[in-house]
Every structure is written in C-alpha cells, then in structure tokens.
Write a structure and sequence with these properties.
Number of helices of chain A: 8
Radius of gyration of chain A: 22 Å
Largest sheet of chain A: 4 strands, parallel
Helix content of chain A: 25-40%
Order of helices and strands of chain A: EHEHHEHHEHEEEHH
CATH architecture of chain B: Alpha-Beta Barrel
Bound molecules: iron/sulfur cluster
Order of helices and strands of chain B: HEHEHEHEHEHEHEHHHEH
Strand order of the largest sheet of chain B: 1-2-3-4-5-6-7-8
Strand order of the largest sheet of chain A: 3-2-4-5
Number of helices of chain B: 11
CATH topology of chain B: TIM Barrel
Structural class of chain B: alpha/beta
Shape of chain B: globular
Strand content of chain A: 15-25%
Oligomer: heterodimer
Number of strands of chain B: 8
Largest interface: A-B, 28 and 34 residues
Largest sheet of chain B: 8 strands, parallel, barrel
C-alpha cells in the first residue's frame, strides 16, 4: 500500500490561515489502512482544526467527506456538486489522490494534509516499511524476492558493499542490509548461482527517470 | 600493457608494489596538495586521490590528481558512483584519461548521510561493479556502452576496492571474483588489522586462483594512538580491529603510541609480503603523509623501482 504520515498540525493550520470554509477529504484506500487518511482521521483532524481556530478567535466551517478512492474519477466526481461552495479542500489522501482532486476541480485550492511516504507493508501494528520503488522493471526473481533497488540504501545490484556488518546497513543501525537479506534468501532457495552473475546496467527509463509514467492497457480501453 | 601506467608496469615486472593515498583539501588551496605530495614523491608507484570520501565535500579527485602529477607522482583517480550518473562518469573518465591519469579505482562511495550534505540526493545509477565493466568496455572495445565508437579509448589500469572484513564473510571471495569478471586488474583492500581473517580470505581467494587473475594490494593504516583505533572501530562500518591490536598500542605511554603504531604497521607489511598472492601494499596514512617514508622505507620497500 501507499503509506504516509500526518503533517504537523502547525503546518496544516498555517496553510488554512486564509480560509474559513473548507472541506477535509479522506480516502477509503491505502491511507485508511495505514490510518492516516480515512474517515476516522478526517473526523479527528477536522475537530482539531475547529478547536484550534476557535481558540484563536477565528472560527472555521468544515465539511467532512471521505471518498471511496481519491484516485478514481467516478468517486472524485461525487464531490463536484458542492465543492464550489468551499474555499479550499484539505485532502489527507496520498499525493496522487490530492493531485487528482486538484486536476478535476480547477478553481479550488487543494492542500495536502499528509506527507505521502512509500510503497510498503505493515510489518506489525503501527509499523510500516518500504518494499518497492516502482522501478517499472522488476528483478525480484533474480534476487530472492527481495528488492535491491529499495532495500539496499545504495540500490546496488551487486552488493553487499563494504559497510555491511552483521546484517546491518552502514547507513543506520535500524536498517537491515538488503544484500545480506538477499544472500540469505538466495542461499535458502539454493539459488546462489544468481549472485555470481554480472547484471546489466539497470534501465531507469521505466522508473521516474524517464519522466512521468503512464500505463495504457488497450484491452481495457473502451 | 593495458594502460601503460607505472603501477601496472611495476606489478607486471613482479615487484612488490606500494601505493599510498592523498585526501584532497576541504578547500581550493592547491598548496595543501603540493605539501602532501612532497611526502609521497619517490615513495610509491602510484598515489590514490580520494573522491569526496565519507561524503565530505573536498577538492575534486581529478584536480587533486593533476596537482600531484605536476609534482612528479603518478596519480590514481578514485571514482565513486554516489554522485554521478553514467553520463557524468563516462565524461570524467574520458577527461581523466586525456589528462594522463592512467590508474583508476572504482567505488560505490560512502552514503551521503555521513557527510556535509546528508540532505543531498544520491545517484547510484550504476554500481561500482558496473563501473568497472563500463571502463573495461570503453578501454578494450573502444566504444561507449551505448555502442558508439569512441574518438580515442580511455587508458586505465582498472582497480576496485574490497573489504574482506565486511559481512557476510563467505560472499567476499565470490564478490571479488565478480569484480574480476567485470574487468578489475587490481584490488586495494580495506585497512587490515585482523591478519588471521585476511589470511583466511587470501587462502579462499587462492583456492579460486584469483590471485593470478588480479593484483591484490593489501591495505594498511598506521594507528596514531589507542584512541584512534577505538574510534575507528566504533565509527567505521566494516572496520575490524582485534582487541589484541588495541591492547598492544594501549600498553604504551601516550607519547610513545604513535611510534608504536608505525612499528606495528611496518611489522604488518613485512608479514603481508610473505602472504602468497599479495602483490603489494596500499598505505593509507590518513593525514599522516609525513610518515610514509619511514613506514615504506622501514618495510624495506625503498627505493621504488624505476621502469621505462
Ligand atoms: S525491482 Fe523495481 S518493481 Fe521490483 S520491487 Fe524493486 S523497485 Fe519494485
Ligand atoms: S550495507 Fe547493505 S544495504 Fe547498506 S548500502 Fe551497503 S549493501 Fe546496501
């Protein structure tokens, strides 16, 4: 899923200073699962903003909404009938969702209420960790199912580097060395021969480096 | 001869070779490089010039190489893949070769988090293994990796670094083999303090015949004090300094520890000379270049051979 963290409330209040009539919009997708942008978080954030603004003697009216998904046109359109009645939308969906609202509602300012993080997994309740950088050319079959682009701090294709010590990455003692994980896995799978091969230079054009990406599935376009 | 570098010739002639390293200054003052060069000249077969090591910004490696070259020292340019994509790397390789730099060390580079600018974006477009391969392609095939013909192939004696003390240990020799397959001509190791482990590493490398395919220069760094040893052990990832080594230097009074460090370094070089497959030493006297003559001379490695 796409993960994120709430923006500090001070930053949110500063963004909202020019407005007294806004929408706070959540999303039932990834951000609900990682508890940063769902219905409940919309309620909590709206109340916090209201209280703060009241205390500052500068009341604000807030409409609370939560869309099924902010990244899908059919759900986004459901906001159209009323969005023009508000000065701005504070969205706590991921960056993609926020932008999609901005694109659809061209005259309404869109404000980000969260900092979108990464594509990751829930390692345990309250802890998420990155797993994929969406490089567009997956090599997991060669690396024991562990991503060198994401899990190695240097995205090395022939690790581990000289900084790998007892399974820990040189960058931080809280980070496991991705290449130690890859080697452990390759060993367990009996696929160490994959390690000994020189890998071609990674093509980054399928990643962000090729410019904004688009997927077109002709079979699905009607 | 692949590059015609002095280092390559000395090694090819079967001499036990010596390299050292010069860290360029944290500023634009060329005099600092020239002063260091004066301590290095005549004592080595080539001198590494580091590339923003520990991600601290310094004068560029190429500029440092030219400054020491002017002083009559054969430069060895270090190149990390942290800061430059393949376009910049190729371009700098061509430039370095055009300016007469003939030795190259391909490195990943320490992560930027250790340096001045932890907020910097890192590159890691290709890794050090692939950089070795890229240089070899340019040198031996006379083409860019894209396949286009070069107007003059760069000439480099291609080196890489290995850390026999990083984990997992069992991958260290296979990884060296991979670097040789990629095109490495020589290797400089991380500073060795744990001689037993290094000998084990060499034994494994010899079993694969790797010492015959690549010139292995064993890295040493003289300790200035017990404090420095403890600091390095704590702060540098993958630095293996056994307790016995620390105890030995710590047993000296403070003002004698530096001399002891040098004595230990010389002893170690003598021991390394006897290890089958070790073709030379790489003496990293960090901010202590003035001791190079004493160390290298003390180990019986002066004068350096002059080959034409
Ligand atoms: S190789 Fe690319 S697509 Fe596959 S997990 Fe890693 S970043 Fe994601
Ligand atoms: S220690 Fe491991 S994860 Fe960290 S940069 Fe080196 S190889 Fe990558």
């Amino acid at each position: 899923m796409i993960t994120g963290t709430p923006k500090p409330i001070e930053e949110v209040l500063e963004m909202l200073e020019p407005y007294d009539n806004i929408i706070v919009a959540g999303c039932h997708g990834c951000v609900t699962v990682c508890r940063v942008g769902g219905e409940k978080e919309v309620q909590v954030l709206a109340s916090t903003i209201r209280l703060a603004r009241e205390a500052a003697g500068n009341k604000i009216n807030i409409k609370e909404v939560s869309l099924e998904r902010q990244c899908d046109p059919e759900y986004v359109e459901s906001m159209r009938p009323y969005v023009g009645d508000y000065q701005a939308v504070l969205s706590i969906a991921c960056g993609a969702g926020i932008q999609f609202l901005a694109e659809k509602f061209t005259t309404t300012p869109l404000l980000p209420g969260i900092n979108t993080g990464f594509l990751g997994v829930t390692e345990r309740q309250g802890e998420w960790a990155e797993r994929c950088q969406g490089c567009g050319d997956c090599v997991l079959h060669l690396t024991g199912g562990i991503c060198p682009v994401t899990r190695c701090a240097k995205s090395l294709f022939h690790g581990p580097c000289g900084g790998s010590v007892r399974g820990i990455c040189e960058v931080d003692k809280e980070i496991k060395c991705g290449w130690q994980l890859i080697i452990d896995r390759l060993k367990a799978l009996g696929q160490m021969e994959n390690y000994g091969k020189l890998k071609p230079y990674k093509g980054w054009s399928s990643a962000r480096d090729g410019g904004p990406r688009r997927i077109i599935r002709e079979d699905m376009i009607s | 001869m692949k590059s015609g570098s002095n280092l390559e010739k000395v090694l090819a002639a079967g001499h036990f070779s010596v390299t050292a390293e010069c860290g360029p200054p944290r500023g634009a003052d060329p005099e600092i490089v020239r002063k260091k060069a004066a301590f290095v000249r005549g004592h080595v077969d080539a001198c590494n010039v580091t590339d923003n090591q520990t991600a601290m910004v310094r004068m560029s490696s190429l500029a440092g190489c030219m400054l020491i070259k002017e002083q009559g020292i054969e430069p060895l340019i270090q190149m990390v893949v942290r800061d430059r994509n393949r376009i910049a790397l190729q371009s700098d390789l061509l430039g370095a070769s055009a300016l007469g730099v003939r030795n190259l060390l391909c490195l990943s580079g320490d992560h930027q988090k250790f340096g001045d600018d932890p907020q910097a974006k890192n590159v890691f477009d290709i890794d050090s293994m692939q950089l070795i391969h890229l240089v070899r392609t340019m040198r031996d095939e006379g083409v860019f990796p894209s396949g286009d013909k070069l107007e003059g192939a760069p000439q480099f004696f291609i080196g890489c670094a290995v850390n026999p003390f990083a984990d997992p240990f069992e991958i260290r020799v296979p990884r060296l083999k991979l670097k040789i397959d990629a095109g490495a001509d020589f290797v400089q190791t991380q500073c060795i303090y744990n001689m037993d482990k290094f000998k084990k590493y060499m034994e494994d490398a010899r079993k694969e015949g790797l010492h015959e395919k690549v010139k292995i220069l064993a890295g040493v760094t003289p300790l200035k004090s017990a404090g420095m040893a403890k600091f390095m052990r704590r702060m540098v990832a993958g630095m293996d300094i056994p307790e016995a080594v620390i105890e030995r230097i710590a047993a000296e009074p403070k003002d004698k520890q530096a001399a002891k460090g040098i004595e230990m370094c010389i002893e170690q070089i003598e021991e390394l000379k006897e290890v089958e497959g070790v073709a030379g030493v790489h003496v990293m006297a960090i901010e202590w270049e003035e001791k190079l003559e004493e160390i290298i001379g003390g180990a019986g490695l002066l004068p350096r051979p002059v080959l034409v």
